[in-house]
Amino acid sequence: MKKASKTLLLVLASTAASILVGIAVAAYLTVPRIPLIAEGGGLLVFDPEIGGRANPDSHARRIYPAVRDRQTFAFDIYTDDRGARVDGPGRKSPEQVDILVVGDSFSWGYALANEETYARHLARDLDTSVSNFAMAAYGTTQSVQMLRRNADLSPKLIVYGIIAHHLERNVSPCLPSYYPFCFSASHVAWNEAGQPSIARPRSNGVQRFQRHLAGDFLDPVTWFTHGIDVVRGRIEYGLATYGTPTDEKKEEALAYLLREMQRSADQIGAKLLVVYLPTNYYSAPKALPRVIGDIELLDLTEAFQRERDKGVNLYIVGDGHPNRDAHELIAREIAKYVGDKDLLEIRSSSLQPD
């Protein structure tokens, strides 16, 4: 009996040790450190419908050390009480805005101060109010959801900045992240009847990311629970990577989301303008003109290529996001298009942006 008990204890101890070693390897030892220093408050808060959204009334600072051919850079992110990006602390959202911007990091203004983003330039160029609800890593899915969340602002024009990668993001349960685990997010899924809809995120990727970035997992209990969560996130990431839908499904998802965005705009009496923002001067995906329908589309490929041919660089060196010159160009092109198409009737009493 004693021998059996001793054997059982050895088996249990060996199993426990194997589990702990497995967690250590999968959740910590094989997860690389990322070239990012986060200061201030949390940039994102978990949202059970979207996955992550901007932390309202917050200030976060991001510092990116030099890597390869990219220089060190840092920028501050301030948000108002709704989570829209603003110039400084303590800003409140207006009760109504003329233009509402949604999109990803190209529209959010990655690596730039808010004053340098195309949304802020639009506010000045058109002398009107603009709220920017774009966020890094978002796709069309989250852009539709943020539009709906803030429909009570009654914008007259919605500007959606789309990039080619949104086709992949729209159908993936994991948004792009620095870490090899899932940053869980809403995504398009299909039911048994083949009908698309927006599915909720599968887990709390915001907490997973922020805890790992901060190194807030040193006590044994948190080390274990966070480790298990990272393992879960790696499994989700693997399933998302190897379960990528076909190009046809990606196109179908984009078409569905654009229809939903147009429907939401119609419900609040707003016009919708989709702006294609080139990555590395590349042309828009062939799927975009096929599914855009009668939605206004401003393709900035030629404008970007024209500046490139003049010798003007429009991307952050070693990074690929639009730089200050690019955001100024984007704002000029949008403002001209809005004026030419009469998409925005500016009120003389238009609220001034923060």
Describe this structure as you would to a colleague.
By secondary structure, the protein is of the alpha/beta class. The chain has a single domain, classed as Rossmann fold (3-Layer(aba) Sandwich), CATH 3.40.50. Helix content is 40%, strand content 18%. It has eleven helices and 15 strands. The strands form five sheets. Strands 8-7-9-14-15 form a five-stranded parallel β-sheet, sandwiched between helices. It has a four-stranded antiparallel β-sheet with strand order 1-4-5-6, with no helix packed on it. A hairpin with a 7-residue loop joins strand 10 and strand 11. Helix 1 packs across helix 7. It is globular and about 90 Å long.
Characteristic key phrases:
five-stranded parallel β-sheet, alpha/beta, Rossmann fold, 354 residues, four-stranded antiparallel β-sheet, 40% helix
Main beta-sheet strand count, sense and barrel state: 5 strands, parallel
Shape: globular
- The CATH homologous superfamily is called SGNH hydrolase
Unreliable stretches, pLDDT < 50, 5 or more residues?
Answer: 347-354
The separation of the N and C termini measures: 76 Å
Count every helix, treating DSSP H or I runs of 4 or more residues as helices. Answer: 11
What secondary-structure arrangement, pairings included, does this model have?
Layout: H1 2-29, E1 37-40, E2 44-47, E3 51-54, E4 59-64, E5 73-79, E6 85-86, E7 99-103, H2 105-108, H3 118-125, E8 130-132, H4 140-149, E9 157-162, H5 166-169, E10 174-175, E11 183-184, E12 187-190, E13 196-199, H6 205-214, H7 220-242, H8 247-267, E14 271-276, H9 287-291, E15 296-299, H10 301-309, H11 324-341
Parallel strand pairs: 7-8, 7-9, 9-14, 14-15
Antiparallel strand pairs: 1-4, 2-3, 4-5, 5-6, 10-11, 12-13
Helix pairs in contact: 1-7, 3-11, 4-8, 6-7
